[in-house]
Amino acid sequence: MNLADTPTREVTAVTFPSNAPRLSKRDFVSLASDLVPPLDFGCFLLAGFIGTLLYALFVPHEPLDSAVAISRGNAALIGAVLAPFVLYDRNFAAAVGRRNAAPLVGQFVLRFALIAAIAIAIGEASQVFDNLPASWVTLWLSASLVLTALVRVVVATNVRVLLRKGAFTESVAIVGAGPVADRLNRHLRDTKADRIELLGIFGDLPEGATDSSAWPVGSIDELVEVSKRRGIDWILVALPAVDAARLDAIVQRLEVLSIPIALCPPNVGLRVPRDMVDYTGSGMPVMLLADRPIKRWNAVLKSAEDALLSWILVLLLLPLLGLIALAIKLDSPGPVIFKQRRHAFNNSEFDIYKFRTMRFSDEISGDRLQQTARFDRRVTNVGRFLRTTSLDELPQLFNVLKGEMSLVGPRPHAVNMRTEDRLGSEITATYAHRHRVKPGMTGWSQVNGARGSTSTTAQLRRRVALDLMYIDNWTLWLDLKILALTCREVLRRTNAY
Question: What pTM was computed for the model?
């Protein structure tokens, strides 16, 4: 059964309050788990120093020569290098948040014992432990055990305090119909009301379908609109039966959002990769169907990259920006900056900044979406130089500083832009998937020959394919590579007019 063919019933439009963007509980616990390994590294080094102090108290007359000091430092370093890998548990904070920390204690003890055995074996094989008394090794390992355990207690305590205060309450939307959606609705509302903000049930429901009147019901299109105004942490799909066609149709419509989409029980018979099983704030296991493309520490790295590099570039380029503004004012009347509505993250819109390169008239107000052509008569003399050198794009650094854009990402297209008199979404079904990340000043498409206007449907499809390739394979090094290749493309002036 195709979702598009499902009869729908009219529902009253629902108004949801907007909320400020926040770090979701799910992302927070992941980041909390990732903070533990570097702390473990420091704990083993610090334990070596503490072991030396304690050993000096118990054996005050034994001299500490350079050979012994180096051996102790090397031994501590062996343990410090092993600890982040052997002790790491990516689900540590999540398990603590679900109040299921008891099994973690046994796992931690076993992993620590494994580190001790490996460190001693390496030390004996490399003769590092030859100059070390057994009592010092015992003190060092004991101090390491205490310190790494304290780290976990502190992290667990802070996670629980923040969860108890509701700082990371998850916002959940249910997509589906019938008894399954109703049961899920009641489960989330009754069992974990303090940790779940339930937006309601959404979907194109058949005639006569029942729903809980206590919760608003809207269409999938309404859910997409709601996501533009407020943060949503989870979209849970609840279907009465496994229907591959309907499920694919739902995911296709919702995958444009940078929001985790999960299939919840009782549809546990579907085969999904093991690493796609996750947990909601209620502790209920779900099967992920789609996830944020850039998340956890990757999202932190990308934000830091944008903030640091854009500030540096703005400060370095301020004199050039001033000269360009003066040249534009002297060349033709009109404003220096041109603003146009563009597609943005999560299918929202924003005003992109560019240096004005065309004669100021109603034709460039942004309402008439005519793509620039080669030898376009609307382009001014200064504008032609700015466009061929891409200097007209520099004001977008301020879009990056405002958080509307990234330095690297899919280039934002004008709202309602048409290619061969068709919208992008009419040409390729995955067009809106480009909006799952922030748009960029440059991107993988631009350094792979897909720079400039998209005058044919083939050009648009290729650009979308390259953009999605970038989203699915993002790394910090890929961003830096694209920035370096962009300099080459600008010098070549490929497809720039």
Answer: 0.61
